[in-house]
Give the backbone structure.
Amino acid sequence: MHIHWFPGHMAKAQRMIREQLSLIDVVIELLDARIPVSSANPIIAELIGSKPRVVALNKADLAEAGRTGEWIRHFRSQGLTTVSLDAASGKGTKELVSKVEQEASEKIAKLTAKGIKGRAVRAMILGIPNVGKSSLINRLLGTATAKTGDRPGVTRGQQWLKVGKNLELLDTPGVLWPKMDDQEVAFKLAVTGAIKDDIYDMEKVILRLLEILQENYSERLRERYKLLQAELPEDTAELLALIGAKRGCLRSGGAVDEEKARRIILTDFRSGKLGQFTLDNSNMGE
């Protein structure tokens, strides 16, 4: 399973980030709580250097709560201000704004000492595609100003957005790194939606996902797809066909439409209908 993806606008996004960083007080690094390490773009740390940063674990509603707590403690032990949130519902956004303002307090104090009073905190939101940047901005603004979508690469431009009296946000496109040497990381990015579905081998990705579910969450498979324990085959290809048959994904003649079955499983996983998942292990952050 070899996945490589670096559209031209990603390189442009990096240039834009470098050009705007001098205007920024705090960087908000948005990570996917299901894959806190795999969704962390190493280029971002390189780009921002020593700039104050707040790490936000988004989509926490789709991740295992206990393990999200472990990840928050891990990042905080690294000296990083960290919060969890669900941008879709707004849970955690007030804490995020508070932490951003705290991180910028020293810079604002220096400006005030120079006679520059009342300047809003300027923050930049960075993260890989489809991690929820636009949803977070919309939640903070209380309106659908930033274009959102359920696929990566929707946000292409750059805009300043005012949040209340004390915060201005600079939105940026999602940025992936040029080469993914770790194909397990690539799998996690694909299955969570950071990589466009049409550029990777979905058959291999779904079979790998079924392997993980079969080994660690078989009860969820049985419950969601009305399977009996005795029905669960060890072979993931057979499991895919069984789920497809159970969900009525049949072609004329009775053959299973495996592509349709794969789409159903992927949608169920991403939407939380198969439960909450954290795919990254805590030892990845060591």
Remarks:
- The chain is about 40% helix and 10% strand.
- The CA atoms of residues 250 and 256 lie 4 Å apart.
- The radius of gyration is 21 Å.
- Residues 147-156 have pLDDT under 50 and may be disordered.
